[in-house]
Design a protein that fits this description.
heterodimer, A: mainly beta, Archaeosine Trna-guanine Transglycosylase, Chain: A, domain 4, three-stranded antiparallel β-sheet, B: alpha/beta, Ribose 5-phosphate Isomerase B, Chain: A, 2 domains, seven-stranded parallel β-sheet, four-stranded parallel β-sheet, 15 helices, about 15% strand, globular
Chain lengths: ~90, ~400
């Protein structure tokens, strides 16, 4: 049973389809993500988990398009949200 | 399902087709709102258009309000209007009444200061509205093509499921309606900041592409001119709790509502579409104000996706609710019409849910009720451009 959804093959984040507890192996459809990615913290349903290393300043990609930039280095398995991802379009002073 | 499906609607003398027979009770200022509310509450089939501006506003706001209220009065779902004026407001009630009278349906003007106060105006209004309602009883539904429909697309209380399930299913629905020759309107400008490239690529011609890009740029400039970041507005606190982090992310999920057909036109707030196919309307992301723009433009039905759960409806148009969030469907199912969470659980495909939305809208167009209608939702709000003096 998949527990995450990768919307586009270009994405470096996936969406939790259930509440993920720390240490859960992320499963995309029939295949476990290669190399194996494990959630490093609790990820609520609907929230994003990194599946690749995203360096500070690099784009976070979902729906195959950038949704903002990482404000710190993000490791695979980390929760990606307001603490480590910021909008490029929605800020007055970047 | 290509090009020749029909539903049972009401053909109007001006060529439009209605899906409901309602009397619009329209106050022309906040001071007339109570009287209008009392009238609408006492007459079956009367719909309160809960406008509360009309005084102390900029000329631009009064102009937009007069135009939109007139379009509500001439809406195909409306079989008669009652304009309720106080008598000293800025909005010109006689002008509004004349504009409505230019349509096919009757309109009456009541002025509280002339009618002799609250109770006399309510009594006179109830009598007039009942007479309009009695005339409507003779109207019969007949077969009408789907191409006579204008459908507004809206989303509200979005979360991560909106972009995964409800919005892509609505996109399939939009494509099905366009294939029938209907007019479909995508809206909510501030919720497309970061996804504009997708619609620019689908613009029918360079002029439409440039007008759309310009609309998005202007919206971004206006938002930033407040000196505040988008966060807390786009995305809203509830969007963020639901897993949406940035306006770009919200936009990329929102844009899926518009399906895959070309964008044929860019419309101003409340402007009726003239071309069949998918148009874009410049509306705020604020849901009641955006839906008002879609309905004023002639949408007989609005389809509304929600992740967190938004129960709102509209005074004169049925609003169909679709959620892709199984928890929301379980928690507030009475407010929902379509459960799209089956896409996430793998029980149905996006295309199957899109077809279900289409079939449901066909029934609603023929008289079937929506959850919001059964629960009495009749929200109304309007875009405000300037301050209140």
């Amino acid at each position: 049973m998949p527990n995450v959804l990768r919307i586009s093959a270009r994405d470096n984040v996936v969406v939790a389809l259930v509440d993920l507890s720390p240490g859960t192996s992320l499963e995309l459809g029939e295949c476990v993500l290669e190399p194996c990615v494990t959630s490093r913290e609790a990820i609520p349903f609907g929230h994003k988990v990194a599946i690749a290393r995203i360096a500070k300043g690099q784009p976070v990609t979902k729906y195959g398009a950038p949704i903002g930039v990482a404000v710190e280095d993000i490791a695979p398995g980390e929760h990606v949200h307001v603490h480590n991802l910021r909008s490029v379009r929605g800020v007055v002073k970047p | 399902m290509t090009g020749n499906e029909e539903f049972l609607g009401y053909r109007r003398a001006d060529g439009q087709v209605g899906v409901r027979n309602l009397m619009a009770v329209i106050p022309t200022c906040g001071c007339a709102l109570h009287v209008a509310t009392q009238i609408a509450a006492r007459v079956e089939g009367a719909a309160l258009i809960a406008y509360n501006g009309g005084c102390g506003q900029t000329e631009a706001d009064i102009t937009v309000a007069t135009r939109l209220l007139a379009q509500y009065g001439r809406h195909p779902n409306v079989i008669g209007s009652l304009v309720v004026s106080l008598g000293c407001e800025t909005l010109n009630a006689a002008d509004l009444t004349q504009r409505i009278a230019a349509g096919w349906a009757p309109v009456e003007l009541l002025v509280i200061q002339k009618a002799g106060g609250t109770r006399r105006t309510v009594e006179a209004g109830v009598e007039l509205a009942r007479q309009m309602g009695d005339r409507a009883k003779r109207l019969r539904r007949e077969l009408c093509p789907m191409s006579s429909l204008t459908i507004g697309l809206e989303c509200g209380g979005s979360d991560a499921t909106s972009g995964m399930a409800a919005n892509p299913a609505m996109g399939i629905f939009s494509d099905l309606m366009v294939a029938q020759g209907a007019r479909v309107i995508l809206a909510e400008t501030s919720e497309l900041v970061g996804a504009e490239h997708i619609l620019v690529e689908r613009a029918m011609n360079a002029r439409v592409a440039e007008r759309f890009s310009h609309t998005i740029r202007e919206c971004e400039v206006r938002l930033k001119a407040t000196g505040e970041d988008f966060m807390g507005k786009q995305p809203s606190p509830g969007n963020v709790q639901g897993g949406i982090t940035t306006v770009e992310e919200k936009a990329l999920g929102d844009v899926l509502k518009g399906g895959s057909t070309p964008v044929v036109d860019v419309l101003a707030y409340g402007q009726p579409p003239t071309l069949p196919g998918l148009s874009f309307m410049d509306t705020p992301g604020n849901d009641p104000a955006s839906v008002t723009g879609l309905v004023a433009a002639g949408s007989q039905i609005v389809v509304f996706t929600t992740g967190r759960g938004n129960p709102m409806g509209n005074a004169i148009a049925p609003v169909v609710k679709v959620t892709g969030n199984a928890r929301t469907f379980a928690a507030m199912g009475e407010d929902m019409d379509i459960n799209a969470s089956t896409i996430i659980s793998g029980e149905e495909t996006i295309a199957q849910v899109g077809s279900r939305i289409y079939e449901f809208c066909l029934r609603v167009a023929s008289g079937g009720t929506t959850a919001a209608e059964r629960l009495g939702h009749a929200e109304f709000d309007m875009l405000r451009l300037g301050p209140l003096y």
